[in-house]
Design a protein that fits this description.
Belongs to the cytochrome c oxidase subunit 5C family. Keywords: Membrane, Mitochondrion, Mitochondrion inner membrane, Transmembrane, Transmembrane helix. This protein is one of the nuclear-coded polypeptide chains of cytochrome c oxidase, the terminal oxidase in mitochondrial electron transport. The structure is a single chain. The protein has one helix spanning about 15-55. By secondary structure, the chain is mainly α. The model has no long low-confidence stretch (mean pLDDT about 90).
């Protein structure tokens, strides 16, 4: 009786091109989130100085 041959998965090692593409993709996503965070901080700062200039807010504590 002939033994049946079982196919086993063979580990070929890391794919350099695939790892580079994954690294670039993760870097772009993280960079995008960082830019969004930076733009939000810029917007808040601009709004603060605009309100300060219009006199809507003050950085001086009123002593009553």
């Amino acid at each position: 009786m002939a033994g049946s041959h079982v196919a086993h998965a063979v580990y070929k090692g890391p794919s350099v091109v695939k790892e580079i593409l994954i690294g670039i993709t993760l870097g772009m996503v993280a960079g995008g989130f960082w830019k969004i965070h930076h733009w939000n901080n810029q917007r808040r700062t601009k709004e603060f100085y605009d309100m300060l200039e219009k006199g809507e807010i003050s950085v001086v504590v009123n002593e009553e």
